[in-house]
Amino acid sequence: MGNVDEGITKPEIAEEFRGCSVYSKESCRTCFARFYCSGGCMANSYKFHNTIHDTYEVSCEMERKRVECAIMIKAALADEEQ
Ligand code: SF4
Q1: Tens-of-pLDDT digits for all 82 residues of the chain?
Q2: Whose Cα sits closest to atom 1 in ligand 1?
Q3: Separation CA 2–CA 12 (nearest Å)
Q4: Which atom of ligand 1 is closest in space to residue 55's alpha carbon?
Q5: How many Å lie between the centroid of ligand 1 and the Cα of residue 78?
Q6: Coil, strand or helix at 24
Q7: Cα(9) to centroid of ligand 1, in Å?
Q8: Nearest CA to ligand 1 atom 2
Q9: How far apart are the C-alpha atoms of 56 and 78, rounded to whole Å?
Q10: What is the pLDDT at residue 82?
């Protein structure tokens, strides 16, 4: 996007990031974890798909499992309190 000497030299990159979110990624639209995850790592998306507007499925699997486990733990703790 730029550097400390010259400042921002490629403002179009900032615009691209501004337009990238959980709402703009096709694979996030039906994902139950979308509001916990918020669309995943853009760097991983870029590394594996050459665009920030995609997701990295390995990370998605891990994120969904983390959310599942967190919900299970919360439910178990709620059961103990009763
Ligand atoms: S886990 Fe993957 S598909 Fe689901 S919201 Fe996160 S990045 Fe999107």
Answers
A1: 999 999 999 999 999 999 999 999 999 999 999 999 999 999 999 999 999 999 999 999 999 999 999 999 999 999 998 8
A2: 60
A3: 11
A4: 7
A5: 27
A6: coil
A7: 31
A8: 60
A9: 33
A10: 82
Q: How far is CA 42 from CA 57, 68, 74, 78, 79, in A?
A: 12, 23, 29, 35, 38
**DSSP string across 29-64:** TT-TTHHHHTT--HHHHHHHHSSSSS--HHHHHHHH
Going from N- to C-terminal start, the domains of the chain cover 2-81
Best of 20, 25, 28, 29 to mutate for ligand 1, by most ligand atoms within 8 A of CB? 28
- The Cα 74–Cα 47 span in angstroms is 34
